[in-house]
Write a structure and sequence with these properties.
This protein has 123 residues and is mostly beta strands. The protein has one helix and ten strands; from the N terminus they run ββββββββββα. The chain has a single domain, classed as Jelly Rolls, CATH 2.60.120. A six-stranded antiparallel β-sheet has the order 1-2-3-10-5-8, with no helix packed on it. A four-stranded antiparallel β-sheet has the order 4-9-6-7, with no helix packed on it.
Length: 123
Amino acid sequence: MKITKADDALHIKKPEGTDVRYYLFKDYEVHYNDQAPHTTQTWHHHEKVWETLYIIEGELSAQWRENGNEKSQVVKAGDLIETERTPHTFSNDSDKVVRFLVIKHMPSADDHSQMLKIDKVLD
């Protein structure tokens, strides 16, 4: 078992208002984000990497571009977002910090969903 302490994560405060702890590994990354009230992230996308966001606390306005159209939806605690490769940004329009996890990984054409469900051995 390997444990990574919060103090060992790469900690960056971005100028647009997101405070991020980056947990960097060989095959994936996990980011713990605190997005300040009334801030918007910079529009971006990824060509090869897939981001999955899980909202822990608060709510964000997710905005993305799809087929030339800009779309948006409010997401809140318990919601999960897969950004795929679409250009996207997130706005915190509230008066409170929004907390969320980002998992960055490389998608595979192989379907491992069954193995993920059953790969557990009781000791």
